[in-house]
Amino acid sequence: MEKSPIITVENLVKNYDKFEAVKGISFEVKEGEIFGLLGPNGAGKTTTLEIMETLRDKTSGKVMIGGFDLEKSPNDIKHIIGVQLQAAGYYPNLNLTELIKLFSGLYGIDVNAIDLLSKVSLVDKAKAKYKELSGGQKQRFSIATTLINKPKIIFLDEPTTGLDPQARRNLWDLILEIRSTGTTIVLTTHYMDEAEVLCDRIAFIDNGKIIDINSPDQFIDDLVASGFERKKEVKKANLEDVFIHFTGKDLRES
Ligand SMILES: Nc1ncnc2c1ncn2[C@@H]1O[C@H](COP(=O)(O)OP(=O)(O)OP(=O)(O)O)[C@@H](O)[C@H]1O
């Protein structure tokens, strides 16, 4: 059965003064899928994501999230979405447990911090401060904060940028695990291998416009069917495989 859309974006436009960053894009995100926004730097991905997250005003267009109209009911939308908080919001003197208590207080709910930290394998860092975490741990904590209000949809902006291969794979597992509980995920990434592993469907954006939307498999099959061939025979392994072969799959950050 075709899944129903949980997000509908119609003719979304965002202008920064005279500059048109998003030029009338339309797409749907289906319930329970991982939907990727891919495109070059400056394409308009973060702008689009932040409009859906209610963090940025749109210029025009219609956005419906979980049945709520962004224009009329932004507060209802805030209740059903999970947003990665900016690192600047992580008060330096509080440890991870205290930060979770603080954030859950903002939502007016009571959350078991240890349960939440265990979901992202950070129980042993419960008393550590954010600045004391490695890059991968910071990303995992940031994803944990999106889950505080048990959201239907979470938004992840470049969740694995700057991480080593083990930490990236570990985050992929975490993202797939979150999806397996029924949560819809919208993410941006510059890593095509990541998009191929994680995304059910992808929208390619360039210059503020959507070029095409499809599943990774279908995009690749269509390109091959059009006669495209890689110039060089691809080896059966790449340098990342060598890295993992030498250093194993275990996380190295604790
Ligand atoms: N607050 C702002 N004021 C003016 N222009 C902005 C603002 N935020 C973004 N832009 C511009 O809008 C365009 C789209 O930016 P956006 O951050 O959405 O792109 P992106 O696809 O997320 O890029 P990246 O991959 O580099 O993160 C860029 O040209 C950017 O310079």
Describe the protein in words:
The protein is an alpha/beta fold. The strands form 2 sheets. A 6-stranded mixed sheet has the order 6-7-8-3-9-10, sandwiched between helices. The model has no long low-confidence stretch (mean pLDDT 91). 33% of the residues are buried. The chain is built from 9 helices and 10 strands. The protein has a domain at 5-76 and 153-247: 3-Layer(aba) Sandwich (Rossmann fold). The chain is 35% helix and 24% strand. It starts with a strand and ends in a 7-residue tail after the last helix. A hairpin with a 2-residue loop joins β1 and β2. The chain binds adenosine-5'-triphosphate. Adenosine-5'-triphosphate is lined by residues 16, 19, 21, 39, 41-47. Keywords: ATP-binding, Cell membrane, Membrane, Nodulation, Nucleotide-binding, Translocase, Transport. This is ABC transporter ATP-binding protein. Residues 7-232 form the ABC transporter domain. One of its GO terms (cellular component) is plasma membrane. Pfam families: ABC_tran (PF00005).
